[in-house]
Amino acid sequence: MPNDDQTSSRIEILRFPLIIGVVFIHNFDTTVSMVGGAIGVAHNSVWVEFVRLFVSRGVARVAVPLLFLVSGYLFFFGEWSWERYGSKLKRRLHTLLIPFLFWNLATLVVFAVVQSIPQTKIYFVGTVWPPVYSFSFFDYFNALLGIAVKYPIAFQFWFIRDLMALVVLAPAIHILLARKSLLPFITGLFFLWFFSVWPVLWPSVEASFFFSLGACLFRPGMSVTYLDKFGPWISAMFLGSLIFNSAFPDRLPYLGKFVIVFGAPSLWWLTGLAARTVRLKALLMRLSGASFFVFAAHEPLLIVVRKITYKLFAPASGVAIISLYFLIPICLIAFLVAAHRYLLQTVPSFVSFITGSLARSNQLRA
Questions:
Q1: Domain ranges of the chain
Q2: What is the pLDDT of residues 287-299, one digit of tens each?
Q3: Which residues contact 228 (CB under 8 A, 6 or more apart)?
Q4: CB neighbour class for 207 (10 Å; exposed up to 12, middle 13-18, buried from 19)
């Protein structure tokens, strides 16, 4: 981690809440697809819609940009050299590539098995991928790597795929972040992201901008804590834009981008407050170690749990919908944290292999 202990602590504090945000992003829909049709309620009351938008499309929406920003900051931490870059590239084979291949292969195998069993097939109906038994050779390749599609079969791993692409492109980013080209490069990426103009399938414009911005924050004269003194004011703007965007979705097309612009420094400022709260800091630091496992394992498990729950309870009222909206991901996250802890105690080497945790804990020492 960075030599600055305060920055290190704040990054660790931030990890687990951001993964919670990712889970809630994927928990947004109130309908689930099953064989024979969908289950759930497509149109909800105003207050239910507001809560879901506020959490999943508001607070949680900041999670992925911040994850890319932190990844860029950490990757460019330290003095740049080709030897250091090669060392970091090698380490990313363990922290990114191996977990990426493992979890996509595991998801593919699970889909293949459960789609062959009539009793479980209904819970693994996909709208993106055809049944595994009908895959062509290229479909297998595409499902594992996500080469020609937006998402691999373990769709949350588009984040890791884009991150790997940016790691490979890091030398070019380093050159573009030189003193004379830094401002036009970052400004150009910002406007491309803000107006969603991007001809490349991957890495996405969101990944490219925030990873580069994180790299920029490590440049001389930059500081990750600079905006902290404006934290309360930025957070007020974040809350205001968040409330308006949740109450009147799509009324202002680019307001969602302002939610992210204000939300990223707001959440970072809040980590400073959490770092000064002893018990909260200790809790979040402990949970940080389970972050990648929760990220990797929550899908397709979340989809399956939602399908089973919706089939059992068939929620129709606003109270039932919003109760399940919070209970399902909270219970799933708690289960995965407990599973991670158990696996660490029984098969620690395996957990390290599938999460890259051993290499990740030392990723800035090279």
A1: 5-361
A2: 999 999 999 999 9
A3: 268, 269, 272
A4: buried
From residue 123, how far is each of 32, 133, 265, 280, 361 by CA, in Å?
A: 9, 16, 39, 37, 36
Asked if 189 and 176 touch (Cβ cutoff 8 Å), the reply is: no
Average pLDDT of span 307-326? 86
What residue has token string 């602590």? 9
How far is the C-alpha of 59 from the C-alpha of 50, rounded, in Å?
12
Other Cβ atoms closer than 10 A to 337 = 18
Reported as a pLDDT band with limits 50, 70 and 90, residue 37 is: low
Please tell me the predicted confidence (pLDDT) of residue 207: 95
Whether residue 243 is predicted with pLDDT greater than 80 in this model: the reply is yes
pTM, two decimal places: 0.90
Max Cα distance, the chain (Å): 62
Is-contact 50 244, C-beta < 8 A? no
Alpha-helical (H) ranges within the chain are 5-25, 46-54, 63-75, 82-92, 98-114, 118-121, 137-145, 158-168, 170-176, 182-194, 205-216, 231-247, 255-275, 278-288, 291-313, 318-346, 348-355, 357-361
**CA-closest candidate to residue 157, choices 292, 60, 15, 284:** 292
CA-to-CA distance for 317 and 306, rounded, in angstroms? 16
Q: What is the DSSP letter of 59?
A: I
Is 38 strand, coil or helix?
strand
Tokens at 210, concatenated: 């925030």
Q: Is the pLDDT of residue 365 over 50?
A: no
Nearest to 110 by CA among 268, 300, 346, 289: 300
